[in-house]
Specification:
The chain is an all-alpha fold and 303 residues long. It has a single domain, classed as MFS general substrate transporter like domains (Growth Hormone, Chain: A, Up-down Bundle), CATH 1.20.1250. It contains 13 helices and no strands. It has helices at 11-43, 48-71, 76-94, 115-118, 121-152, 156-175, 177-184, 186-206, 210-224, 227-238, 248-275, 278-289, 292-302. α2 (48-71) crosses α10 and α8 packs antiparallel against α13. The longest helix has 33 residues, at 11-43. It is globular, with a radius of gyration of 20 Å.
């Protein structure tokens, strides 16, 4: 679907294509995390943050590639076509290494979201952690550059660098995630990350100093690094069956809640900025990040 947006001729066609593209990516996203859980169970190592570092490095790489294509006036169809071929080639190269789980038997074969998942408070709380993290992460992605340029007087290149610093910090911390999670455990790193992200964004929003803005977003990127991958790891563990499989419905459920945070977060922060100002909106994102701590503690009690 990726090259198709370059061929549409009306907003309605573009909307329909984006629905299909989003749906396919949603299925792809859940399947990647299910495969990652399968690997983690086989090797018995907390590797989910390491896997998610690919997203943190891929986001700025995609942005830089798009910026270069736009600067060179590359037409949309060739650009999207190259991106699609690259994605398909990479997928074809690695898919043979994805664990092949045996089909579930009996009642475990049911598809879709069952009532048992909906009745589990721990999954709702884990989804809440992912939801809050997605709000803050999505808002940082969409508003950091404008905040840097408009409120801190940076050039546009400085705004792009701030976004890249946020993503790269998240990626580097995730690369070290196995050792950190193994030493401190999921609950501790989620609560510590919540405090770091909240403090970083609050500092960036309230102190008009350029270096402190960068330092604040470094703390925010590092603090949010574990939230989404660790929550999905816990969701997969919550669905583990006696035969060593399971977790697909739980991961899909938590991912759905999380993606609603990506959808709601940026326009919500924009609305707050419209009613007040952008620094207050960024500070609000920092305050929202602090909600990860009580949600994590509550999920730990129900796990």
């Amino acid at each position: 679907m990726l090259p198709v947006p370059a061929l549409v001729t009306s907003p309605l066609q573009l909307g329909l294509v984006l629905v299909l593209l989003g749906a396919s990516f949603g299925a792809f996203d859940v399947s990647m995390n299910v495969a990652a859980v399968g690997v983690i169970r086989r090797v018995r190592r907390p590797l989910m943050p390491v896997f998610h570092s690919g997203f943190s490095f891929g986001a700025p790489a995609g942005s830089l590639g798009a910026a270069f294509a736009a600067d060179q006036r590359v037409p949309l169809l060739p650009y999207f076509g190259v991106a699609a071929v690259a994605a398909l080639t990479l997928t074809a190269g690695v898919i043979r290494f994805v664990p092949r789980e045996k089909p579930a038997s009996g009642t475990a074969r049911r598809t879709g979201l069952d009532r048992g998942v909906l009745r589990r408070p721990a999954l709702w709380l884990l989804g809440g952690v992912a939801f809050v993290a997605a709000i803050v992460e999505g808002s940082s992605h969409d508003w950091s550059e404008l905040f840097a340029v408009r409120e801190r007087g940076m050039p546009e290149a400085g705004g792009a660098i701030l976004f890249s610093v946020f993503c790269l910090t998240m990626g580097v911390v995730r690369l070290a995630g196995e050792r950190i999670q193994h030493r401190f455990g999921a609950a501790r790193i989620l609560t510590a990350g919540s405090l770091l992200a909240g403090a970083g964004l609050l500092a960036a929003a309230t102190v008009p100093v350029t270096w402190l803005t960068f330092a604040g977003y470094v703390l925010a990127g590092g603090g949010l690094a574990f939230a989404f991958p660790v929550v999905l790891d816990l969701a997969g563990a919550a669905g583990l069956r006696a035969d060593g499989t399971g977790g697909e419905r739980e991961i899909g459920f938590v991912t759905t809640i999380a993606y609603s945070g990506f959808l709601i977060g940026p326009p919500m922060i924009g609305g707050i900025a419209q009613l007040t100002d952008l620094p207050f909106a960024i500070a609000s994102a920092g305050a929202i990040a602090l909600l990860i701590t009580p949600l994590t503690l509550a999920a730990t009690r129900h796990h």
